[in-house]
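Our preliminary data section would be incomplete without showing what the modeling component actually yields. Below, a chain of 228 amino acids is followed by its predicted structure, encoded as tokens that our downstream tools consume directly.
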Amino acid sequence: MARCTAPVQGHRTASGRANCPACGGGYRGYSSYPSYSAPYYSPSNNYSSRSSGGQTKTKARWSSTSSSVLYTPSEIRTLTPVRENFEKRLGLLDLRDVFLCHAWDDRKGSAKELYDVLKSKGVTVWFSEKDVRLGTSLLREIDKGLANSRIGIVLVTPLFIERVKGEGIAEKELSALLARDLLVPIIHNTTFENLREVSPLLGSRSGLSIDEESMDDVAAKIAELVAP
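Predicted structure:
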């Protein structure tokens, strides 16, 4: 049986597809295919995919065979180093799966809602209402939470942006946190552009968005990210 040459040669042009012994003659007009470097995505991984809003979504390397969770290429690039560092910390005992950083005024609203959804999916969460002392600085809370959790997520809301603006996060300290590749921003009711205005370093890191997907969908991605 003829074998498709896409995993080796790619089908980025009509002629490339036409010359493939398995696919020749079946070209349907797609002029190009995105090229991703391993470990983010490779055709040989046989991940399922679909087109959504003009973007191709795929399973992640860490997705189970039965998973229906799909990611954009940007999400794969953002979450892959976080997953790799998570896997390095799997052997550490008594750690929470996730540290949830958020604005204090969101603790009974969107932050509590996200906490509840994550908990319902079996994720252990470090949450300020239960674990962080009052009066500590934002950076110290993040630092302490990450030290006792496998990864951190930052719920970025308008209230969070106001808090960051008021406290004036130190670029040097924030850079050290982001360098660990253990921090995932989650946007809610704001934009990465607004975040970049008050914290260019945090805003430069792409993440997940509750505005583009439901909170349950975002929580499912976090739950899959921290699954053993």
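The first helix runs from residue 6 to 9. The first strand starts at residue 49 and ends at 52. Preliminary results of this kind motivate Aim 1 of the renewal.
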